[in-house]
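Hi Q.,

Before the meeting this afternoon, I wanted you to have the pyridoxal-5'-phosphate prediction in hand. No need to reply - just skim if you have a minute. The sequence and ligand are here:
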Amino acid sequence: MNEPDWLSAVPRLSIGHLPTPFEPLDRLSRELGGPRIWVKRDDCTGLATGGNKTRKLEYLLADARLKGATDIITFGAVQSNHARQTAMAAARLGFPCHLILTEQVSWKNRSYATSGNVLIDRIAGAEVMIVPPDAAAEATSALTSRLTEQGRSPYLIPAGGSNATGAFGYVRAAWELLGDCERLGLQLRHVVHASSSAGTQSGLIYGFSRLGREVRVTGVNVYHDKPATLETRIGAIISTLAERHGAIAPPRIHVTDRYRGKAYGLPTDAGLDAIRMFARFEGLLFDPVYSGKAAAAMIDLISVGEFSGEDDVVLIHTGGQASLSVYDNAFTS
Ligand SMILES: Cc1ncc(COP(=O)(O)O)c(C=O)c1O
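Predicted structure with the ligand bound:
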């Protein structure tokens, strides 16, 4: 499928290793006795261990350049994969990067604030500020004023890169995935992935619909106490995408809330088991916060017959492995 004009017209910097690989998981599919599982390897997008944010940053940083920004500011948890990819992408493009990271996860590990993603942020040369969640707004306005007084022009990227500009990365991913399937003669009907700040899921839903395809996108809530919060955000981003890039039929938003566990950032037994299983059957590495919970959902949804009648299902591997080192105690306890 050729890239439609409305897709190629949006300014984008080529930062990621795209298209990402698209692979069948034959051993695991046989073991689970369900449809054939395929994985879209967005953990291979290239930026310092990869991940889904790279697709969003291709559009966000293009926008920052067009607006004449001098610095990038973004937000996340201490072990944010988004912050890590932003730090690296900004470094590559020559933007100083400032990260306001909040202590919002109650996981206890001696190196939680020094290893994993935050280690990479520091290696990338980002300014890292770790603050309590209720101090983030104040830290942001102090930082913005400081930079403005210095005559600089900061560009603020929301947590997860999830606004309509960033989500456009996943509109393009929908097109890329349809192309993968077309080349292999697969009928793409169902996609599963970890969902938290809504950009990935809203981009995919909008993208498939705008490209005229009916593909069910199941978002595995890993963040929100109430899944309705995630659904509302997805709906809002889709509305903005529709205003900017063309209307679509009223979207169906599917969020499952059964796999998050007690809270964001806390591993679940099912997630840890899924991580071991994908590693041992397919040599693939997932993480306990995001992709491992999506992998657990995929295993469970197959076991409850969710995909009966379907020949192929796609798991989008959104990355996250950089945080594994701060979850070493989850695997040993
Ligand atoms: C590894 C990983 N998977 C999935 C997600 C969820 O993507 P989104 O925030 O676009 O919903 C994130 C976002 O933080 C992530 O880091």
